[in-house]
Design goal:
Blueprint lengths: L11 E6 L3 E3 L4 E8 L5 E8 L2 E6 L7 E3 L7 E2 L7 E4 L8 E9 L6 E11 L7 E3 L13 E4 L8 E6 L2 E2 L6 E3 L3 E2 L5 E2 L1 E4 L7 E9 L2 E9 L4 H28 L1
Parallel strand pairs: 2-10
Antiparallel strand pairs: 1-3, 3-8, 4-5, 4-9, 5-6, 7-8, 9-10, 11-12, 12-18, 13-14, 13-19, 15-18, 16-17, 19-20
Amino acid sequence: MFVFFSVSISLRVVGISVPSLKQRGESVTLTCDYDLEGGKLYSVKWYRDNEEFYRYMPRLRPPQHAHKLDGVKVDLEKSSARRVHLRELTLKSRGIYRCEVSEEAPSFHSAQAETFMEIYYFPRENPRIVGHERPYFPHEPLDVNCSSAKAFPPPELQWHINGQKVTETSWLTNFEAKTASQGLMVSTLGLRAPAKPLMKIRCIATIGNHRREKTVSIVTNSADRRKASNFNLTLVIIICIFKVINLEMIS
């Protein structure tokens, strides 16, 4: 004899609200919106990278409980069955956040949703440009590098020449981001565009909507200046030879 049970799964998570990008040191409120559709709530649990850090169980007193997890500081006073508030975010706070909702007995049905939150640090310092100090001859390839200040994640770098973004890939040299102190990163991008007169180059570092930039001028030597330099050098050599001859004649 077989007995069949008809089970109606009514619980569903309507939506999870987790910012995709937050700055180190900030606070954040994560929300989990669910619909029990007549069922009773058993628990709401929050995880970061599959490690539980907060649960809400209405049958318990108090109903809230926070677990210790590196990079996650729960403010219980600002947390509830539908939200959890985190204080003083660090770079270790980044990860996949999951909300899991369960119904009361006898079904104990559960539903969940998850999304990734990135933590960034963007400094006040502008990028640093090196290699622009020396003069260049027209059409000579630049040998210029731009490095971001220490940040996380590695900032995206762009070069602009006289207000125009450089898209010619053969002019750009990509370097692997380097690890700095406190888990921060430094990005570097080289520029090998041909030099030309009245040339201003700008390096822009961005993370999300944040940006820092640095602009410098490139000094170019014209062909006339090169000829003048060669003429002056020849003149100096002739004068030196003339003085040597005079000294030999006197002696």
